[in-house]
């Protein structure tokens, strides 16, 4: 096992899957390698579990559920808080592991841990807020009572862009509700999930309450299908592409499994001429360049009103030119690589398509190839990065129009695609002209317009003068082809892991 940067506590770096409190291999003993996207080289391997491994792990979760479902909510809250504190206490090492598996710069890795532990904190509180209700119905002598109970064994299918945040958002809600859960992290980023499992065990969660399956890209479709169709699994929560989300929903439909889907974005970011452009720029650059654009809530289509188009673009180019691209663990780097080579290829194809259809490059536009130099260079003026890896220059495309591929598909790359618009009517039509509906962002100082935009934009989350609306206490989720179900937020997130029973009680006497 080789971790290029030393950890304070090497026991946090695990290289086995985790079931029923034990570190396990695949039945086949097969393993697969995990790459550092900053070098493109493997640095550790983990077990490649397959369909034949699923039964015993689900059975472990079912056995654990029989006991965990009755654990008092206060105790569940205390367990979540102990876990939360252990994660916080090991923040430095976890950030290092996260940087090596995702490629994101260390500062962003810390940012993800801080965001993610918002979920453990929040769901510790939610555990004790779960309650049913009592009502007096129209029929005489009756009371109607509803109670909430944990749904059972759950499965979390988690992507590679925010592997800690996505785990804690799903697993935190499930454990607060009294469910047990099996996490299957993405094959690119299994390591931090295993670290979290290790810390959950230390926090006192019983064997089987939180299991982790590691599996390769080859085995992911069949293994996920087996989990979705397993009769003991009651609920599946998936974050990823709309194409895969639809397959997951199909698998779950046969067994009528409860599903929540957090899918693709293609989010519009709209800047009106009356906006505070400094605020809009700061919010856009934080959102767009976060994790090199690899977020489903990222600004995919940036609409700038005609009067301020050139001014705003110039500021965006100036700001972006200061980004330093390189290995995420290196001091001073502000943008890391893409996590997969597929991401680089997609970015290249999208830029080529836009240029062919009339867009112009305001900055960047190229794949960054390794030169072997141990230097990271400024975004605008060099193609040098250290020692290999999946890098793409921070890129700004101007004069975008609706015929271009980026208009219809998420980039998931450091590409800012900037469109012009004239009127509010026009930009509402353009913004909604997508099958996706995850998030939309609007910048204006006009309160009446803000309110109109909130009501007219078709998205599950609307940022008004902000590019960052993700928080443990706010419901997260999309509409249209961006999925259904809410994660985080008061009541709604935990409700995804609960069933409700209605009790009708007839009383004696005329009451
Ligand atoms: C995502 O983009 O996949 C999640 C981002 C967030 O939670 O803010």
From TrEMBL:
<feature type="domain" description="Aldehyde dehydrogenase">
    <location>
        <begin position="23"/>
        <end position="502"/>
    </location>
</feature>
<keyword id="KW-0560">Oxidoreductase</keyword>
<dbReference type="InterPro" id="IPR016161">
    <property type="entry name" value="Ald_DH/histidinol_DH"/>
</dbReference>
<dbReference type="InterPro" id="IPR015590">
    <property type="entry name" value="Aldehyde_DH_dom"/>
</dbReference>
<protein>
    <submittedName>
        <fullName>Succinate-semialdehyde dehydrogenase</fullName>
    </submittedName>
</protein>
<dbReference type="Pfam" id="PF00171">
    <property type="entry name" value="Aldedh"/>
</dbReference>
<dbReference type="InterPro" id="IPR016162">
    <property type="entry name" value="Ald_DH_N"/>
</dbReference>
<dbReference type="InterPro" id="IPR016163">
    <property type="entry name" value="Ald_DH_C"/>
</dbReference>
<dbReference type="InterPro" id="IPR050740">
    <property type="entry name" value="Aldehyde_DH_Superfamily"/>
</dbReference>
